[in-house]
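Before a computer can learn anything about folding, someone has to put a protein's shape into writing. The three-dimensional part falls to structure tokens, numbers that each stand for a local backbone shape. The protein below has been through that process, and both of its lines are reproduced in full.
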Amino acid sequence: MGKCLDLKSTASSVVKKDHREKCDGSLLYLNDIAEEGLLYARLFRSTEAAADIVSCSLPELPEGYYIIGAKDIKGKNFVKLMVEDQPVFADGTVTYVGEPIFLIVGRDRDVIHGISDAIKVEYEMHTPVFDFQSRCTPDIQHMVSYSLGCPREESLDVEERAHLVKVEEFRTPLQEHVYLEPQTVKGFIDSEGRVTVEGSMQCPYYVKKAVMSALALSDDEVRIIQSPTGGAFGGKEDFPCSIGCQVAVAASIIKKPILLTFDRHEDMMFTTKRHPAVVRYRTSLDENGEILGMNIEVYFDGGANQGLSSVVLQRALINSIGVYAIPHVSVQGYVVFTNNVPNGAFRGFGAPQSTAALEAHMVHIARDFSIDPLEYKQHYLVAQGSPTVTGGLFRDPVLLPTMIHDVKSRFGYEGKKRHFTELNRSNPRYRKGIGTSLFLHGCGFTGSGERDYIKSVVRLEKNGADDVTIRIANVDMGQGLLTTMSKIVGQALDIDYRKITFPYPDTACVPDSGPTVASRTIMIVGKILERAALRLKDKWVSGEEQVVTEEYIHDESTIPWDENALTGDAYPAYSWGVNMVEVTVDILTGHIDVDRIDASYDVGKAIDERVLRGQIDGGVTQGVAWGYMENMERHDGVMYQRTISDYGPPTAMDIPLIESHLYDNPYENGPSGAKGAGELTFIGGSPALHDAVEDATGAVFHRLPLTPEHVLEVLGDQEEK
């Protein structure tokens, strides 16, 4: 007899609220909806990367067609975000290939394409900057720079008494989000005269603030609606602000609904990607391999404008010593300007780049001293009460030793390592290896962002039938939020989660509970909802309409955050992970087969175990693929890979069954003890794979991805030496 599900508890895995319509195809995405009178839009883009616009020749337009540009903007011609450096429409200058200059609107897409072809722009050229790596030096002007840890002079003084200074540079690549639904927004005037943008997005209030700024409108004159969103992974955090402004400007003039949908080629060419990075470690060591200090430099290719790069860099720097207690650490970080397409948010938000470099560096030190890498890394693990690199504290129990012990036992680690060593000696072509990564992820906005900037508000509404509606701005983009948030509220109210309604966010109806980013939604917003539900339960009157509003409450026991010095508690809590990967490397072709993945996580307490395991499967796959499969390159600011088949993300045939394991470690300020999970699952895949390939081949790699060509190149260099 099957186990009876408790539909009032978060302990049971339940049927996802949107599973049926997603499985049978009845869920309509924005581009699926036919609408009478709908106009279509296409962006006309710069063909040059660094130039002044001397003149524009526009064709005569057929009736019902429009060209919208900078001259039509009533407010500021900047996308309101961190800084004002990204124009809604280029005006006078262009800074990357593909920068939007005009939006062409009309009834027929073929006619729109013809109008686009007829526009002629005369440019006065400047010398563009494409080579990111040549600018990875602290001696030039950067868009953003930060320092944290001890003064750099202190870490350099430690080098003077070191037996050895291990110096390495690591390079990590671009990464395409490959969300199934491309960027899509619709602009229109609603029945109350509000300029409205509906779209596939993560952060409705980000888009609202951007549209208000561009159109010089007040809060009650702008409305933003999230449509069903087919994946995002950070790619729909800030980018919808740009295209949302563009269709909003057009809709405010034309007064008709306007749909802007990218095809896959346009989406891959001109949207934000994971920042390419150069990460340098200078590690001071004694004669036994003991770490005396580290000097770390992290460089990100920001592209042509800053966007979210500053906060992505902050997290990368904070993750640059990961789960390790290292003395005398000095970290410097820089966002480099180039005339490349701007880069932005991606799952992990800077942590994957620095973690990939750190884990490889720790492995290389261990092997230099003939120490097992996992044993070496365990020697430096932080514990409860250890200081963080920013002078904060790890306040909660750290379960990494238990997690490592368990994964070694499941893998038969020592025995398998010995077996693979013998196997590799006897097999001239196929080599097997095991690699491990240890990692963490801070939950929520960095520093005091939740208190000082976001200031989340949630609302619960109960109707006369005693059904409860969740009103928050956070979105389900495939991660299961419609289900998990309903479970949190249902458990607090002691009612069936199916009695909880969670509509797609509409800023006309929901308060600003903040963006769906930074592994904050379950832990931060879920906790506020839990408190709201408990208040509603206390005042519950059956048959009456009731409304409860609740706000974010900052934990004042944390060490205050200094935004300028980057000191204090960067995050209220951390989630933890251990990944172990087994690979086979074909020495003749350079091809890598991933044979086994074991993924262990402490995310506090799972709200729904099946939903979480889905996050694990997706995150680990994405992370491992970034390490060896997904190759994205640019030449003179233009992407080589322009289709999914060009890019080559993993299929089900490329990744084995992922063995996932969850460790309960409830966080007192999370709903039912939950912490963030979505980004954590990405971070460990690539470094574990990297370690495994080096274990198999005996080679040392400093650049991702480990494509067959790169593997053969390094193996060839190794033979020559």
The longest strand covers residues 291-303. The chain is about 30% helix and 20% strand. The mean pLDDT is 96.
